Amino acid sequence: MSISMSSASTPIFKSMLSNLDYFLVKAAAHAEAKKFDPANLLSARLAPDMLPFTRQVLIACDASKFGISRLASVDAPKFDDTESTIEQLRERIAKTIAFIDSVAADKLDGTEDKDITFPVGRDGTTRTMKGEAYLKHWVLPNMFFHVTTAYALLRHNGVELGKTDYLLGARQGA
């Protein structure tokens, strides 16, 4: 039995974005317990040439929403990318999940062989892939990369996160 494009995308995006939201809850609690401004975490980087924590969250959201929108041929919501607090990042995640929830499964299913053209980089270069390859080899890895990087940045800065937080988030023990 084969799986559908909707089952291979929507629940994965929602689960990982929900886990990312949980990282933010734990980050805020950590900052409060250690008595420092949680905004200090938002500019965290592991290397000088990498994007900061805030951008990791925004890109994880964008990868999810644009992946769904391109596959389903629906317009993605426009976000201003002005988030500057943990609460605003959490709102961004919630808006992204709400958009994903608004796209019916039948808009995604059957898009395996659809040509998807998307931007790569900032110089106007595009790439075209078939829908299934786009989902499996571009969108999901990109979303996982940025969620994982956000996780690593928080861990590096002392937030008590573990593998269970990454895999289950607030659903632990459920």
- The CATH class name reads Mainly Alpha
Strand content is 5-15%
Assembly type of the shown chains?
Answer: single chain
Q: How many domains make up the 3D coordinates? A: 1
* Major β-sheet annotation: 2 strands, antiparallel
**Which fold name corresponds to the CATH topology?**
Four Helix Bundle (Hemerythrin (Met), subunit A)
- Percentage of residues assigned to helices: 55-70%
Global structural class:
mainly alpha
Distance between the termini: 28 Å
Order of helices and strands: HHHHHEEHH
Overall spatial form:
globular
Task: Identify the CATH architecture.
Answer: Up-down Bundle
| CATH homology superfamily | dinb family like domain
Query: Strand order, biggest sheet?
Result: 1-2
Nearest-integer average pLDDT: 96
Low-confidence stretches: none
Can you tell me about this structure?
This protein is mainly α. The protein has a single domain, classed as dinb family like domain (Four Helix Bundle (Hemerythrin (Met), subunit A), Up-down Bundle). 59% of the residues lie in helices and 6% in strands. It has seven helices and two strands; from the N terminus they run H-H-H-H-H-E-E-H-H. It has helices spanning 10-34, 39-42, 53-72, 86-102, 105-108, 131-156, 163-168, and strands at residues 115-119, 126-130. It has a two-stranded antiparallel sheet with strand order 1-2. Helix 1 packs antiparallel against helix 4 and helix 3 (53-72) runs antiparallel to helix 6 (131-156). It is globular. The chain starts with 9 loop residues before the first helix and ends in a 6-residue tail after the last helix.
